Amino acid sequence: MIGSLLYLTATRPDIHQAVCIVARFQVSPKETHVNVVKWILRYLKGTMDYGLWYSKGKGFTLIAFLDVD
Known about the structure:
This protein has 69 residues and is an all-alpha fold. The chain has helices at 2-8, 16-23, 31-46. Helix 1 (2-8) runs antiparallel to helix 2 (16-23).
């Protein structure tokens, strides 16, 4: 599951920090880490319209900026 979530961080920077923190514990996960992964999946289900779209054209304009710090 963590690998799939890490793949999603390319288009969903809003989950990047939470996924990276959970990925640290994938060697020996505890129940709390599994609960966080479930929380991330529920968040993704509720925000399916969010994300980045990379166009093929040359005219790229940044419309919004997200700072997840």
